[in-house]
Amino acid sequence: MGMIGCYFTIDNTLMQQVIEGETSLNDLNPNDYPNLDIDKSWEGIHYLLCKDISDGEPPLSYVVPLITGQHLDYGSFGAFYLQAGQVAEAYQAIAELDEAQLRLQFDFQKMIEEEIYPFSPDEDENELFAYILQYFEEIRRFYSQAAAEGKGVIFYIF
Predict the structure, then answer these.
(1) Of 22, 48, 84, 113, which has the most beta carbons under 10 Å away?
(2) What CA–CA distance (Å, rounded) separates 109 from 158?
(3) What are the residues whose beta carbons fall under 8 Å from the beta carbon of 145, sequence distance 6 or more?
(4) Whether the Cβ atoms of residue 136 and residue 50 lie closer than 8 Å to each other
(5) Which domains does the chain have, with CATH numbers?
């Protein structure tokens, strides 16, 4: 099955309750909120944008937020949160990125060397780029809506 990356949006009040421990993520059903499944593309997209497997420089590190200081206990792998302002910053950073720019940043061989999930040496480079691009574009649409609504984002892996 693999490790699937998912997002859901929540309002600022609920986000603060989650951050402060007043509400547990385990008590929330992600399907009750606007959500997005990005399949196994999450680490590939993060690496493409940040050239690292975790953290990275904001605001691009907010696109697939693997931010140590914004980790929450949730499921087997935990979750990461972004407040509404960070979502807006992330959207601004990726709003104008196009396929050509992303293609220039895509280093298939380096991703294989770094063992970026879900890449493997026997896969087609162009197919993997298309896979990453498809989910990147879905994230951009999702962040556009979340930013427009002033929502925060929870990202988790299951």
Answers:
(1) 48
(2) 27
(3) 9, 34
(4) no
(5) 5-21+33-157 (3.40.1760.10)
Q: What is the pLDDT of residues 80-130, one digit of tens each?
A: 999 999 999 999 999 999 999 999 999 999 999 999 998 899 999 999 999
The two three-digit tokens of residue 27, written as one number: 């008590």
Of 96, 18, 88, residue with least CA distance to 59: 88
Burial of 98 (0-12, 13-18, 19+ CB in 10 A): exposed
pLDDT tens, 4-46?
999 999 999 999 999 999 999 999 999 999 999 999 999 999 9
Closest-CA residue to 146 (of 28, 35, 59, 19): 35
Whole-angstrom distance, CA of residue 91 vs CA of residue 40: 21
Q: Please determine, for residue 138, whether its predicted confidence score (pLDDT) is greater than 90.
A: yes
CB 108 within 8 A of CB 119: yes
Q: CA torsion angle for 130, 134, 140, 142 (degrees, to 10)?
A: -160
